[in-house]
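Q&A log
Question type: sequence-to-structure
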Amino acid sequence: QVQLVESGGGLVQAGGSLRLSCAADGRTFSSYAMAWFRQAPGKEREFVAAITRSGGSTYYRDPMKGRFTISRDNAKNTVYLQMNSLKPEDTAVYYCAANLGYSAVIAGSAESSWGQGTQVTVSS
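Response status: OK
Response body:
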């Protein structure tokens, strides 16, 4: 297990941008595949984006392609989610997740480590 703390959420107007950060403790961050999920009020949590241990490969949910970018800095034990062209429907609590397996983190495995989430609100 790894402890994760998200930050960077807030209120932004439609069309604006935000960059979320997820800081991990420990010295084994580079061993973990990382992902971002989100959960809007009254809806189930959904996958947003994932990145491999090295950062060499990424994967996005279709509506996020071209608008969101996931990246990581293993020296800083941090994964990022750059969100551009935000829409009101992007309003949600955003969570980061860590798992030793890339497929498992994409699947939202209960065995993943999860942060507490950061609220993103996009006004129209």
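Response note: The chain has a mean pLDDT of 96.
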